[in-house]
Specification:
The chain is α+β, with helices and mostly antiparallel strands. It is built from 14 helices and 20 strands. A hairpin with a 2-residue loop joins strand 2 and strand 3. Bound molecules: the ligand C[C@H](N)C(=O)N[C@@H](Cc1c[nH]cn1)C(=O)O and zinc ion (2 copies).
Length: 476
């Protein structure tokens, strides 16, 4: 295998260039769930295509069509495909990432403009998408660029697949992958995704499981328009009262989900799985620090991690249509929509979950005797995934981590979701490795999202080393 020390030195020397490029992409507010920002998501996709072309990849944009969001028909952003190298004597690695981001605004509590990458003295680079997932996506590009600049042969062929709807249901992606399994993806030997985080803040990990996600909108409609609570309060069924009651029937404050039958299919805990939690080097105080609170439900670290990885959870996210401004507005909102989602685990399926949620809410609404109307909509559902830690793809990731960080990584599952992971595994029949770049306290989806400069640079080295280790794998 090539000596990678010159590559590592080169990556360190080019830190400023990599950071400038990250600044450039953070400044594109590619928020997939905001209809007004949809042009920015397209812009970000085209930015990536241009970079891939600049590096010599053959690219193709796949436009999955349109979808309706907030009553508006919108063009789905392109899935950016790129082929770099077609040498039949080399293995082909498919790398996936997403270029859309979660919403962010200063008013949420950010200490700097979310779309301006802000470098802090402690090495943190703060900005929306820095860790989720623009930093890692860019990392793959710099791996290719560094090899070119040093004249080192890239030991594998690469296929890129970057989507712009991951944070909003990955619409159109699964269909394209299935349709192209024997086409664009035909020669793929292994898949790697860098889109999650270490378990803590100091030790790297590789990840072999993800929870799924099923998102819902629960709408209660009453009066024809918003009403004066002094004039109408006490005289009619109020949508907000019904909604709050219904949302309260979903989950207990201790996290227990109240939907009948929801735990029926949850996989049993085996001794082998339990042993994995026992050896984990996990400090709950890091989780508390990253959350900015000491409000954990479970005292025991093993229970905490199991409830994050292997049990479902239900979170209430927000209410559309409700008054949320400052001061008091004595109004009865006419129509309110509660948003919640369930993180799902083996062996739950989105269809089964949606059926149980709907049956439960319909039964609860019936009990209210309300004259309002209620509608439950399943917004998007992604399946959970568990990979095989013993596969050579994971061995390559492990060796790469050991080389770059000098420690054996934690082997983790992730509480979040990357719905495409299982699709790649099933449709292509190939192993998918999750190789994270960022840390547990990066604040993905939260305020002040950041990527540490050291994680960015070591992450680029890690992705590069993984490709070399995979190329050296004889068992693949
Ligand atoms: C883990 C990954 N970086 C991520 O953040 N995934 C999202 C996917 C999603 C699903 N609905 C909206 N976004 C997540 O786990 O929330
Ligand atoms: Zn995300
Ligand atoms: Zn992500």
């Amino acid at each position: 295998m090539a000596d990678l020390d010159p590559l590592y030195a080169h990556i360190d020397e080019h830190a400023a260039d990599y950071i400038e490029k990250l600044r450039e992409v953070v400044a594109i507010p590619s928020v997939s769930s905001d209809a007004t920002l949809r042009p920015k998501v397209h812009e970000m996709g085209l930015w990536l295509q241009a970079e891939l072309e600049r590096l010599g990849a053959e690219t193709k944009l796949h436009y999955p069509g349109t979808h309706v969001m907030d009553g508006e028909e919108l063009e789905l952003p392109p899935i950016v495909l790129g082929t770099y190298g077609t040498d039949e004597s080399k293995k082909t690695v498919l790398v996936y990432g997403h270029y859309d981001v979660q919403p962010a605004s200063l008013s949420d509590g950010w200490t700097s403009d979310p779309f301006t990458l802000t470098e802090l003295d402690n090495g943190r680079m703060v900005g929306r998408g820095s860790t989720d997932d623009k930093g890692p996506v860019l990392g793959w590009l710099w791996v290719v660029e560094a090899h070119q600049q040093l004249g080192i042969d890239l030991p594998v062929n690469l296929k890129f697949c970057f989507e712009g709807m991951e944070e909003n249901g990955s619409e159109g992606l699964d269909d394209m992958i299935v349709a192209e399994a024997d086409g664009y993806f035909a020669n793929v030997d292994a898949v790697c995704i860098s889109d999650n985080y270490w378990l803590g803040t100091s030790k790297p990990c590789i990840t072999f499981g993800l929870r799924g996600v099923s998102a819902f909108a629960l709408t209660v409609t009453g009066p024809g328009w918003d009403l004066h609570s002094g004039v109408y309060g006490g005289t009619l069924h109020e949508p907000m009262t019904d909604l709050i009651h219904l949302m309260g029937t979903l989950v207990k404050p201790n996290g227990e989900i109240l939907i009948p039958g929801i735990m029926d299919n949850v996989a049993d805990l085996t001794e082998e799985e339990e042993a994995l939690y026992d050896v984990l080097d996990f400090d709950v105080s890091e989780l508390e620090a990253a959350a900015g609170a000491q409000t954990l439900i479970h005292d025991d670290k093993k229970q905490t991690i199991m409830h994050r990885w292997r049990y479902p959870s239900l979170s209430l996210h927000g209410i559309e249509g409700a008054f949320s401004g400052q001061g008091v507005k004595t109004v009865i909102p006419a129509k309110v929509m509660g948003k919640f989602s369930i993180r799902t685990v083996p062996n739950q399926t989105p269809d089964e979950i949606a059926e149980k949620v709907k049956a439960h809410l319909e039964a609860e609404f019936e009990k209210l005797g309300s004259k309002n109307t209620m509608h439950v909509e399943a917004l998007h559902g992604g399946k959970c995934w568990v990979g095989d830690l013993n596969h050579p793809n994971f061995k390559a990731g492990t060796r790469a981590t050991e080389k770059v960080y000098g420690v054996t990584p934690d082997f983790t599952r992730e509480g979040g979701s990357i719905p495409v992971t299982l699709t790649f595994q099933d449709a292509l029949g190939k192993s998918v490795l999750l190789l994270p770049m960022g840390r547990a306290d990066d604040g993905a989806h939260s305020i002040n999202e950041k990527l540490d400069k050291s994680n960015y640079l070591n992450g680029i080295k890690l992705l590069a080393t993984y490709l070399h280790e995979l190329a050296a794998e004889t068992d693949l």
